[in-house]
Specification:
The complex is a heterodimer of chains A (114) and B (113). Chain A is mainly β and 114 residues long. Chain A contains no helices and 11 strands. Chain B is built from no helices and 12 strands. Chain B has strands spanning 2-6, 10-14, 19-21, 23-27, 32-38, 44-50, 56-58, 64-68, 73-78, 87-94, 101-103, 107-112. Chain B is globular. Chain B starts with a strand and ends with a strand. The chains are: A mainly beta (114), B mainly beta (113). Chains A and B meet through strand 5 of A and strand 6 and strand 10 of B.
C-alpha cells in the first residue's frame, strides 16, 4: 500500500460544483501539504498544516479550503469549482525537525472542471 | 524571498550519453536545495539534497548535483542516461526553516534509444 494515498485519482466536474480531494498517510508525519501542478509552473503550495490544530495558507489559497481531520488525514475542498482550477493536485507529507525539505508525495489527483 | 529557475523546459538525450539539467536559485539566506523526479503518472520522489555539507551531492540512480554559491546554481548531472531516466525533474529550494518549498518549472527529459 502507498504511504500517501489520494482519492479520487481522477475527477471531472462542472463549474460551480463543490469538490473534495482527500489525502491519508501512514508515515506518521506531522506535516501535510497540498500542491497543484500546472505545466511549466512546477508545483505551487495551496495550504499546509504542521499539526492537527495548525493550518496555513500557501501562495495560491484563494478558492480553496482545507481540513485536517486527524494527523493522518488532510482534505482539500473547492467550494465552487471554476475551469482554471483544472490541474493535477498533490498531497505531500514531511517530518518536523531534521530532514526538513524532504517530502513524500501521493500519486496525484487529476481534476478537470468543465 | 526565494525563487528557482530551471533553464530548460525540455532536454533530449541519447541513451548512454550525459545528462545535464540546469538550475539557478535565488535566496536571501543559505539555502537548502533539492532535486525531485516525477515519472509519468506518479508522485514526486526525492533524488538528492544539499544542506550545507559537501557541495557535490550524490543521489539515487547515478545522479549528482553540484552547489555553486558564486554562480547561484545547482545543476543536476548523470554520466550516462538510461531509458528509465525519462521523466520530469524539479529543482527546489527550501526556506530557512525547511517549512516551505519553492519549485522550479520543471525539465522534461526525453531519452532516445
Amino acid at each position: 500500500d502507498a504511504d500517501v494515498t489520494q482519492t479520487p485519482r481522477n475527477r471531472i466536474t462542472k463549474t460551480g460544483k463543490r469538490i473534495m480531494l482527500e489525502c491519508s498517510q501512514t508515515k506518521g508525519h506531522d506535516r501535510m501539504y497540498w500542491y497543484r501542478q500546472d505545466p511549466g509552473l512546477g508545483l505551487r503550495l495551496i495550504y499546509y498544516s504542521f499539526d492537527v490544530k495548525d493550518i496555513n495558507k500557501g501562495e495560491i489559497s484563494d478558492g480553496y479550503s482545507v481540513s485536517r481531520q486527524a494527523q493522518a488525514k488532510f482534505s482539500l475542498s473547492l467550494e465552487s469549482a471554476i475551469p482554471n482550477q483544472t490541474a493535477l493536485y498533490f498531497c505531500a507529507t514531511g517530518k518536523a525537525g531534521g530532514d526538513t525539505g524532504e517530502l513524500f508525495f501521493g500519486e496525484g489527483s487529476r481534476l478537470t472542471v468543465l | 524571498a526565494q525563487s528557482v529557475t530551471q533553464l530548460d523546459s525540455h532536454v533530449s538525450v541519447s541513451e548512454g550519453t550525459p545528462v545535464l539539467l540546469r538550475c539557478n536559485y535565488s535566496s536571501s539566506y543559505s539555502p537548502s536545495l533539492f532535486w525531485y523526479v516525477q515519472h509519468p503518472n506518479k508522485g514526486l520522489q526525492l533524488l538528492l539534497k544539499y544542506t550545507s555539507a559537501a557541495t557535490l551531492v550524490k543521489g539515487i540512480n547515478g545522479f549528482e548535483a553540484e552547489f555553486k554559491k558564486s554562480e547561484t546554481s545547482f545543476h543536476l548531472t548523470k554520466p550516462s542516461a538510461h531509458m528509465s531516466d525519462a521523466a520530469e525533474y524539479f529543482c527546489v529550494v527550501s526556506d530557512w526553516a525547511g517549512n516551505k518549498l519553492t519549485f522550479g518549472g520543471g525539465t522534461r527529459v526525453l531519452v532516445k534509444p
